[in-house]
Design goal:
The protein is mostly helical. The protein has two helices and no strands.
Length: 85
């Protein structure tokens, strides 16, 4: 069941931005897990070695770790000031 938001979704709402960033991170983790597990599964059946596969997994893991650090420590979810028009 998808999460429900009790009010009108607005990117200016700090709680909504935080939830949206965490859901994007969860999608990023799911894509990482699906693609890498599939690649390693076929790598185990392949007679030739894929020298690039550990590099891809390692590099993508570093990007994933950077994404986690950003949403947990760097991102500012304080109330955005109103823009003057």
């Amino acid at each position: 069941m998808p999460p429900r938001w009790p009010r009108e979704p607005d990117r200016k709402d700090p709680a909504y931005r935080k939830l949206d960033d965490r859901m994007n991170f969860a999608v990023h983790v799911a894509i990482f897990a699906a693609i890498n597990s599939g690649l390693w599964f076929f790598h185990n059946f392949n007679s030739a070695t894929w020298e690039w596969l550990p590099w891809l997994t390692g590099l993508w893991s570093v990007v994933l770790l950077g994404h986690l650090i950003y949403i947990s420590a760097i991102a500012n979810y304080s109330q955005t000031p109103p823009t003057s028009t």
